[in-house]
Amino acid sequence: MRRSLFVSALGLTTSLSLLLATRRAAAFALPAIPFFHSSRGWTSVIPVRDQSATARAHKSSRKGGQYSVREGQEHRTSTRPRARETEVEPAARIQRDYPHVVLRAGKARLFLEGNPLVYGEAVHEVVGHVADGDFVEVVDHRGNLIGKGCYNSQSMYRVRLLWHAREKGEALYASSLEDIVARRVSTAWATRQALGLPNAETTCFRLVNGEGDKLSGLAADVFDKVCVVSSSSLWCERHKDFIIQGLEASLGPAGISTVWRRSEARLKQDGFVDPEEALRPAIDVKAEARKEGAYVWAKEAGLKYKVYPELGQKTGFYCDQRQNRQMIQSLSRGKRVLDLFCYTGGFALNAARGGAREAIGVDSSALAIETAMENARANDLEGHATFCKSDVLVYARDLGKTGEKAFDIVIADPPKLAPTRRDLPRALHKYLKINRAVFRMVASGGLVLTHTCSAALTQDPEEFRKMVTQAAHDVGRSITILQVSHAAPCHVQSPVYGESNYLTAMLVAVF
Fold it and tell me: Where do the record's region annotations for Disordered lie (predicted)?
């Protein structure tokens, strides 16, 4: 009996030993490794974590073995950080006969996480013939696919990524630029519909918001039955037809047509210069504005606005202030309200609609003031909202001389004063001058809503807060911050690209 038990135990031990040996052998089995050819020779394209495991399993064959680490490549004994850097779809590891941009070692993670802008300093080399605006693959230094986008040798943004390898689905990986743009626009349209836009009370909204909608360099606003596109990158100009097709596929059933506009200053920064631009005659804006079909009417929260799709600033109207304008409407009953840099009267009209005792808008643009007055008439607010063509600082100076009673609410929404971080010091000086003037015009216990639409300043909220506080202190006022808000929800933002958040609105109480 004991002998039988001993034999059985011996057999079980032997079986377990064989099982463990089999598992160890499987653990060290070498996977099939695909290779692709680049200008630097044949390179394996297995994930980095597999390469590291292979190298560890064959330490004795590092010098010349079939799976040895290539000369000049860094051998890593710890795979955890690099594994996170290359967690991509299996299909994304399949290299194709396609022009591609190779990133420097250690530069991939930022873009794998979703950042859409590949700076020149992150690029190691460009493989294949690539012209500016071409659709290319971006790979890390080991050949793993990071994403796809449009190349531009003239821009600090060497590649604008439009698709990232972490997005699921081989079908999208295999898609053309045309397909990807169409998908992005379709998704953007569905997102705005999820926000309840358009609706009976609001027919103007941001449809495409650059990096927020994974279409870097492209913005599009809808005004009732017209979609105004703002192109600010070379790839948009080169692939204009694809973009318009994508917009029309989504918007066509709703009867919305497309108008194409260029952001000339930003296009110049991106290396795009239209040789015919200098030959075009200057436009008589006021004469053009009087032509048939030069404008459309759109609604925001029940108020009607006249919009010039091809003549107005940016796309013709600022949809980003929708929530902030409605907030002013809710605070204005019985108050004297001053709207500085009013453009076509958005804040002043909302103040008047909210029951303001007096609402005044000030702007230096003659066409903007003329349009604001038409907007007041269209909304039966003529006499409740009035408008003045003047430089804001001149208006503030003249107001101080008359000794007119201070306002209960003052809004200041100046233009972008800091296009880049390099412009911040000079811009802060201008912001200080404007806000000092604002704080002089508000009554004790009153409110100020002050803004910056410069992303460089919005990205440094402490600097903006310090500037506003200093401006108040300089004119002997103290403030309490009540609220800080940003652009309307239709201006969707990328969670990994903070620069897409450009607008800051700070509401303060003044004493």
Answer: 53-90
Residues 249 and 271 in one domain: yes
Tokens of 31: 């996977």
Cα separation of 470 and 433, whole Å?
11
Phi, psi of 43 (to 5 degrees): -130, 135
With contact defined as beta carbons under 8 Å apart, do 246 and 185 qualify?
yes
Q: Is residue 146 part of a domain?
A: yes
- Residue 138 belongs to domain with CATH number: 2.30.130.10
In this structure, is residue 337 part of a structural domain?
A: yes
Same domain, yes or no, for 231 and 361?
no
Same domain flag for 128 and 51? yes
Of 175, 200, 223, the residue at which a domain comes to its end is 175
Q: Which residue's entry shows tokens 């013939």?
A: 129
pLDDT in tens, 266-309: 999 999 988 776 567 777 777 788 788 899 999 999 999 999 99
User: Which amino acid is it at 227?
Assistant: C
* Burial track 328-338 (b if 16+ CB lie within 10 A, e otherwise): bbebbeebbbb
Q: For residue 225, which of 255, 198, 187, 247 has the smallest C-alpha distance?
A: 255
For the CA atoms of the chain, what is the radius of gyration? 30
Listing DSSP states for 429-467 in one string gives: HHHHHHHHHHHHHEEEEEEEEEEE--HHHHT-HHHHHHH
222 plus 346 within the same structural domain:
no
Give percent of the chain above pLDDT 70: 79
CB 119 within 8 A of CB 158: yes
* Mode of pairing for the β-strands spanning 204-209 and 218-223: antiparallel
Q: Are residues 216 and 362 in the same domain?
A: no
Q: What is the CATH number of the domain that holds 502?
A: 3.40.50.150
| Last residue within a domain, chosen from 151, 175, 199 | 175
- Same domain for 333 and 269: no
Residues whose CB falls within 8 Å of the CB of residue 33, separated by 6 or more in sequence, listed in order:
44, 46, 50, 54, 67
Per-residue CA distances from 203 to 51, 319, 322 (Å):
55, 10, 12
Residues 189 and 110 in one domain: no
- Kindly state whether residue 412 falls inside one of the protein's structural domains: yes
110: left (phi over 0), alpha (psi -120 to 50) or beta: alpha
The span from the CA of 469 to the CA of 475, in Å, is: 10
> Does a structural domain hold residue 254?
yes
Q: How many domains does the chain have?
A: 3
pLDDT digits (tens, 9 = 90+) for 409-423: 999 999 999 988 999
Does residue 493 sit in helix, strand or coil? coil
C-alpha 322/C-alpha 345 separation (Å) is 13
Q: For 329-334, what is the mean pLDDT? A: 99
Residue 465: CB partners within 8 Å, gap ≥ 6?
481, 506
- Listed in sequence order, the residues at least 6 apart from 375 whose beta carbon sits closer than 8 Å to its beta carbon are 303, 304, 305, 306, 344, 345, 349
- Vertex 157, ends 166 and 250: CA angle to 5°? 60
Task: Let me know: does 102 contact 117? Beta carbons within 8 Å.
Answer: no
